Amino acid sequence: MNSLLTNIKKAIADNISAKFLVAVSGGPDSVALLHAMYKLQCSCAVAHCNFHLRGEESDSDALLVKKLAVTYGFTFHSVDFDTINFAKDNHLSIEMAARRLRYDWFDELVNEYKYDFIAIAHNANDNVETFFLNLLRGTGIKGLCGIPEKRNNIIRPMIDVTRDEVMDYISQNNLEYHIDKTNNDTVYTRNFIRHNILPQFISLNPSFLSTMLSTQKRLSNISDLVDDFSNTLYSKAVEEKNDIIKLNLSLLPQSNARREVLFKWLSPFGFSSDDIATMADFEKLQPGKHFFSDNRVALIDRNEIIIAPKEDLVPDNSVYNITSDIHYPINLILKTIDINDFILDKNPDVACLDADKCKGHFTLRHWKKGDFFYPFGSLGKKKLSDFFSDSKLSLIEKNKVWLFCVNDEIAWVVGMRISGKFALTSNTKKVLKISLN
Fold first, then answer.
1. How many other C-beta atoms are found inside a 10 Å radius of the C-beta of residue 129?
2. Where are the alpha helices (DSSP H) in 40-140?
């Protein structure tokens, strides 16, 4: 059996009876994959994207792929994309725009037609090219591993097949295919690597591709070990509450490996590798130092990194008037109780105030610089910033605390402490009970 067919059969052996959606561009790789899946009698459908980047050539590709699907008796799906305008509207390169468009469409087809796997025709050369591409851009271990053979419902049965083996298969089976002329344009980084870099290595070592694939598999094994270690550590170091995640940095390894562990933890939130490298030396950073991703902020706070939505770094300055129970921005239930019917509730989410001292208008707001109150159980007034510091709250946590005010004076730091000026006394006749739900 041909080596390409053997590799594909081995790759899909555990799922031979599955329903496959095969992505076919019309190029030699995907044409070979489709033919091999047909030879192996797999249940397949064909998906072709026309990105309209090469005029009549793009339309010719679509006709070829449709012809192949009909010849093999496979269902044919096609779609037309305005790739250039999509890239402009979303501030993406053409390559990234095309990638997003096609994978989003593949997912739609999978959901609609219940395909089990999406089969992509990446080969061994693509995998090695990706190694150099990621090396050039800067990457962690995962990027050096190249393209995974399987990720979720995406499979790449030809990832161990070289481009030469693909062309041999094409020739042996007399298959029709099209060549994308832009693949020869070395203005694109991947093409430059393909045509200028890899041939130099292969001239030094004719077995370079197989050597690199073996190296990438070993790197993948190491990456799996790092994942296992970091996941175990993450479960011990992380504390999640609402939208805030706290990472206990004291549990990080003391060696340079901490950078890799931290990269595993923080890169999913969109933080750059440079920022993560800086955060790895957290002992040298001032508390309060923060870093931004697109929609998150990472705040250094003592021996913790606190990750929260970006807007949490700047408190909401809105003031909410309260005349009865409210359900926004938080749920507060207000109830007036006669002292004879009152039973003290020590739950920190409940404030019991002297109702006669709470005459006037009620408001709810966040803290601002200069705020102070009279903490119950303490002598005199205290700056709210000092109270927060004593309570070991981070800047983000401070900004999420609500203040219940009576006539603009803080009566309750919600969920934490009431003001002694509004506390119950032996002369209290009615109690204003405020419950945070």
1. 22
2. 56-72, 83-89, 94-113, 124-137
Q: Give the Cα-Cα-Cα angle 206, 209, 137 (nearest 5 degrees).
A: 125
Taking alpha carbons only, the member of 257, 247, 261 closest to residue 291 is 247
How do strand 290-292 and strand 244-248 relate by DSSP bridges? unpaired
Query: What value, to the nearest 5°, has the Cα angle with vertex 404 and ends 399 and 406?
Result: 140
CA dist 368 and 380 (Å) reads: 20
212 alpha carbon, distance to own chain's centre? 29
For the beta carbon of residue 184, count every other beta carbon within 10 angstroms: 11
Written as one string, the DSSP assignment of 267-320 is GGGT--HHHHHHHHTGGGSPTT-EEE-SSEEEEEETTEEEEEEGGGGS-----E
CA 150 → CA 41, 120, 142, 299, distances in Å? Answer: 21, 10, 14, 35
Q: Hey, what are 138's tokens? A: 């800067």
pLDDT tens, position by position, 134-191: 998 887 788 889 899 999 999 999 999 999 999 999 999 999 999 888 888 888 888 9
CB-based contact 422:396 (threshold 8 Å): no
Task: Compute CA distances 10 → 6, 219, 221, whole Å.
Answer: 6, 22, 20
Contact criterion met (CB below 8 Å) for 74 and 45: yes
For the entire predicted model, the pTM comes to 0.65
- Return left, alpha or beta for 201; rule: phi > 0 is left, psi -120 to 50 is alpha, else beta: alpha
Nearest-angstrom CA–CA distance, 128 and 137: 14
Distance between CA atoms of residues 269 and 139, nearest Å = 16
